[in-house]
Design goal:
about 50% helix, Rossmann fold, single chain, about 150 residues, 5-stranded parallel beta sheet, globular, alpha/beta
Length: about 150
């Protein structure tokens, strides 16, 4: 699979929450994805918005170690890209929301970021994520990595 390291996959915030805050198999499933990125099997992409969504829970719980871990984790690396929320991303987010009244701004920002980064898929546990934005939505779970690696449907 190393030859497909350029296959970009967007990670929604809930993948990181599952990895670091969920017990048992949910955490395992998330770490399979993060390990595939670390090993260069796929290229991971997320938004700086993810950091803003990750920090409040641990901060409210007084878990400064997890806050710091998230700050360290959400940085560009050899196989991981953390994209800024730019004016262009916000404009595309607004256009995505047009005609999709249920699409919340944070979800639109995630979709727009994934599209602007040329991701082939987004891994998410959010069942409200629209399927009609020009991006393959892959349900987070035990088969997410296999689904991402499968040819586009």
């Amino acid at each position: 699979m190393k030859g497909e390291a350029n296959k970009k996959v967007y990670l929604d915030t809930n993948v990181f929450i599952a990895a670091y805050e969920s017990p048992g198999v949910r955490s395992d499933h998330a770490f399979w994805i993060l390990t595939a990125i670390e090993q260069g099997d796929i290229q991971g992409v997320t938004s700086e918005l993810t950091l803003a969504e990750l920090i409040p829970g641990p901060a409210q719980d007084g878990d400064s170690e997890l806050v710091e871990a998230y700050k360290q984790l959400l940085n560009d690396g050899p196989n991981m890209e953390v994209r800024p929320v730019t004016r262009e991303t916000l404009i595309q987010s607004a256009l995505l929301r047009a005609g999709r009244p249920g699409l919340k701004l944070p979800d639109a920002v995630h979709c727009a970021t994934a599209l602007r980064a040329d991701c082939v898929a987004m891994i998410t546990d959010d069942r409200r994520m629209p399927k009609d934005v020009g991006l393959r939505i892959v349900a987070f779970g035990p088969h997410a990595l296999t689904d991402v690696q499968a040819p586009n449907r």
